[in-house]
Prior knowledge:
heterodimer; A: mainly alpha; three-stranded antiparallel β-sheet; 28 helices; 5 strands; B: 2 domains; 36% helix
Amino acid sequence: MLRRTSAWVALALLSACSGGGTGGLPSPTAAPSSPPATVAPTPATTDIVSRVDALLEAEWKAAGVSPAKPATDAQFLRRAWLDLAGTLPPPELVTTFLADPAPDKRARAVDALLASPHFAERWAAYWEDILIRDDVKGNLVDRAAFRAWLHARFVENAPWDRVVREMVAATGKSSPGGPARERRMAAQNDDAEPEAEGVNGATNWVVQYRGGVEDLAGATARTFLGVQIQCAQCHDHKTENWTTTDFRRFAASFARTRVRPVEEKEKGMARAFEVDDGKRGRVGKKATDEAREIATLAPTALDGTELEGDAPRAELAAWITRATNPWFSKALVNRVWGLFFGRGFVEPVDDLRPSNPPRAPAVLDALAADFATHGHDLKHLLRTLCATRAYGLAGGPPAAEATWAAFAPRPLPAPVLLDAVLTATRLDPWLEDTLGERADALRAKMRERFRFVFDVDEAGARAEFDGTIPQALLLLNGPLVGYGSSALAGATLADVLAMQGGDAAKIEALYLRTLSRRPTAEEISRWVRFLDEAASVPEEPVAKTNGQGPLGKIGKKRGWVAKTPRDRAYEDLFWALLDSSEFAFQH
Amino acid sequence: MDTQDKRMTIDRRRLLQAGFGGLGAWLAGRWLATPEASAAEAKPRADACIVLWMNGGPSHVDTFDPKPGTKEAGPFRAIKTSAKGVSICEHLPRVAAEAHRLAILRGMTSREGSHERARQLGHTGHIPNPTVDHPALGAWVSARRGDPKAELPAFVSLGGPSAGGGFFGRAHGPFVVREPGRPPEDMAYGPGVSATRFDRRRAALAMLEDSFEKETRSAAVTERRAVFAQAVRMMRSPAAAAFDVSSEPAAVREAYGDTAFGRGCLAARRLVEAGVPFVEVSLDGWDTHEDNFERTKRLMGVLDPAMSALIRDLAERRKLDRTLVVWMGEFGRTPRLNGRGGRDHHPAAWSAVLAGGGIRGGLALGATDAQGEKVVERPVAVADLFATITSAMGLDPLETVPSPGGRPITLTDGGQVVREIVL
């Protein structure tokens, strides 16, 4: 992602300077006196945005809360980048954006983000975490192939109904095969690989439930419809209408689905599976009694529609994604609202049962209807959410947060935080310089460790802080922030230290790269005092390699440019910025 | 106010938090509560629990439930133990010498034959339920017995992955050490950082945190700061040396065995002595679908010194009375051999072993048939095992907690204490 960033930023800046279309960015040279644009750049979203605003304002009035003040431009830009691109805005874009007087610059920034390559990368990563189970056996699913498939869908902005249909009804081969280690490394990599020929990555979504028709059915209803019908797997639902028979009939649509290995198991090699449907429901020797019964039932959708044709799984996929399906659009809108606003209309986001009513149901209904009307166009939905008044508000008291009258600060999702650290520190060029070909393996290892410690779970992301001691230790002492905050040749701090200008300019540069805002005058003077004090204290000698971890042995050799006590105090300041809550939170 | 009343009050408060949807189940839970359960809660017999988790599912007939003389028994012989009338596999001689302290449950039985589901059951006491994120037993102990001011975490997993904090939150989940017996990762200062410099960094961080906390007034920010403070407390605590077995005398380390599991068992003893109430040590590799005998023998070579040294060591240090040691895996293995000289998953009959903390030693309870296929005497469900463990720990096995969805969840899913093995 990082290598791609600079090229894209250059392109975006170029297009902005040449007058800028909808995909362009605000021009730094725009005259302050130019008449403010009054026409919203995306007329398709205007109606729905004002409807959502009006409904929410009524909600606030009813709850007796007043909305927080509008977020600053810097807050808004950072927020939109983290949500839509999954990374931090480049510092030069922040300053350009802040200098731009045009009133529609927020909408244009959102459009540019939706058009950027970051968008597909972030959204493929986000959905991969939701769609592929954590506990799935490593050798069953080819995460890289699944990511490649998802990525291609987000690149073309495929309508959500098509994406879901392609998963639920997926047939074909799940993986190009090859050495398992390479596939695992590819899955850790940010840059999605291209889709392999003859491979349908979407099948991995089915493959992960191999041998568990009940789980496949439960996941389908829960993920795409927000219906927790799997509760009825064990007993008739106490508060809802589902019975065990309903569940089994629903599951019967998957009874013919076969997941068969393409070749024999071979040590160290990734396995490819072929997914297809047989003529009739079949069960293996080890099948449960439940699976046996499911195989005998007539496939039926949740509203009682019998799926009578030859391909019940494809018919079910069509039924799920119909514009008239009462759950489909709501489930998606609720989940994405939860992601952008810290809490869905309904929580948990995938539990839309009648006895768990939504907050502000009219807003959910309006957004879901609009999403369906616009052909389940994800970018349209995201553009709408970013244009609402609520998304552009600053933080406020918890009472206001509860109705989205204030923006609730929350920890960044782990993959986004990792990306933010890598982007802010620009550790990559130094890694490649120092390690050459081993840099890729090391990056994969760092990502894996980060994911392990942060126990990535997009499905369960919440506004509450649910952090652990190992996470704190990783940030306090771990190599990522430790090396990232060091003045290493080619990395951020070394460049900042080499800048012309005094402390104020350097402090500002660090703020722009981490917090995506300018420091206040008070902050600058506070840090100058900090640097002066630190530089005046005699230093004690320390071993350069008392850290452990993947970078343990290489650090002392190359590229350390911190020479003076003041340089080292800058490292401490940068370290603190990278470990701060303001950096680690969406706010 | 007596104990019973106090509990009722607490439960009433929880009930209100849960909303009225859970009323019926809550009342049912109360009425089913036996006087024994209350008595058990009043008198904790163990302050700590060490679970030796045999990942993959250990073959019961090749370990604690030998079937000498049967066609499928294979090459292993059974040997006598220090418990009268109890024999176990010949490759566990040192464990056999401690058998007078062990209660072997030979009637374990469940219906979960897949690793994921059985692992979840064995860690949480509940079968997987997509709508309730059940906490691991260690998380429950952490939530109820953990001291928020402690310098060490209440739930440590040596070797991992164990199971998570569930609806109690990640803060109660396992503190996973990937290399048992060594200091946890990222506990030492980073490169070029001294204690003084670390303090300077923290002072800089505090400046940023103060203003952001003041500006946002966000509880999440306050909680994050608290977790960071806890991490620093642990880094700098002398008690953290308990993770590191390198300071133990060579003879002690040798007794446990020079293996990750052996070091894990030694670290578990040290952690329990340092006040950690729940430690899990895992030994992986029991999923012997191929070459069962060779692999099982090798694993017993790792298990035997470590488990016996742990129990003996705890006993000699007078800690065994207050420490419950549990040996278990996700299920047993088929007495019948498959075509590759392996044994497959067998949840219908398997063994678990308990020792210390309120457990009567020197007996084998329950029995399987001649082959080890079925339980024919004193079946014990995982829920019963959990009721036994939690009672010994002074937790109420029938404690009901509202899950985030508002549904009441009982700790042990209706298990009964295995009275025959309780002192």
